[in-house]
Specification:
The chain is mainly beta and 257 residues long. It has one domain: Jelly Rolls (Sandwich). The chain is 0% helix and 49% strand.
Length: 257
């Protein structure tokens, strides 16, 4: 169990008010536009809602900015809050549908450059605190999230490690917290502040500042839904929309002494 009395907050967003705080977050798109194709759907600024003290990243089918399709969104702190060692935590409810997955992850910009290595993980990494693809499962993994690490940039240098699947408490209906302690020796993952795993893959932990990302992905390619590890979005018996509900995101630094 992590003891946060030993840590001081350096970033906090409780999503109060009626709009996203642009000093902390921005839409994450490669084009810089307010809407673009992402996997089996679109990332669109209009799918970001702030109300009742929570951020809601909505996924829905509509005739939107780029035509009919499944629209959702991703936000990041790139250039607004880039940070290193610390404890990163989110409190959220996962979206209740198959064919999509919500994620809370940390990444360095070195990871986005094809053919550029990162000296293992020393010069940057992608740290998937959680991804949630398992709503489609009818077995014991249904309530599990997955945690992973990726290093060395894009293919063909990319190296990845899926650390494991870990259960949360009714994550599609109730709030849980998902956290990561990143220090100079290892990464330690948590659910509800209880440790799930730890690793130093590959060659040690990242030594460069990284930024946070909150995202929802729709399975498929070129804005066309398809079957992937989270299932197929058109198989949902319940009509969309569905929301990824985020109560807060916080980052802490360990206090000296």
């Amino acid at each position: 169990m992590i003891d946060l009395s030993q840590w001081k907050p350096v970033f906090e967003d409780d999503f109060n008010g009626d709009r996203l705080d642009s000093t902390k977050w921005k839409l994450r798109t490669d084009s810089g536009k307010d809407c673009e194709i992402r996997r089996g759907g679109y990332w669109d600024k209009s799918e970001l809602l702030v109300k009742d003290g929570c951020l809601r990243i909505r996924t829905e089918y509509k005739d939107g900015a780029l035509g009919p399709g499944f629209y959702t969104a991703a936000i990041c702190t790139d250039g607004l809050f880039d940070h290193g060692y610390g404890y990163y935590e989110i409190r959220c409810i996962l979206p209740k549908a198959q064919g999509l997955w919500a994620s809370f992850w940390i990444q360095s910009n070195n990871m986005r450059i094809p053919g550029k290595g990162t000296q293992g993980g020393l010069n940057g990494a992608e740290l998937d605190i959680f991804e949630a693809p398992n709503y489609c499962k009818n077995d014991s993994t249904h309530d599990c999230i997955v945690s992973s690490i990726h290093v060395n940039g894009q293919a063909p240098l990319l190296r990845s490690k899926r650390i494991g699947f870990f259960p949360a408490t009714q994550p599609y209906d109730h709030f849980n917290t998902y956290g990561l302690e990143w220090n100079d020796k290892e990464y330690i993952y948590y659910i509800n502040r209880k440790e799930t795993c730890r690793t130093s893959f590959l060659r040690g932990t990242s030594r460069v500042p990284e930024y946070m990302i909150l995202s929802v992905e729709v399975c498929g390619r070129n804005a066309k839904p398809g079957i992937d590890w989270a299932g197929l979005i058109t198989r949902n018996s319940k009509l969309l929309p569905v929301d990824f509900v985020v109560d807060y995101v916080r980052v802490y630094d360990r206090q000296p002494g």
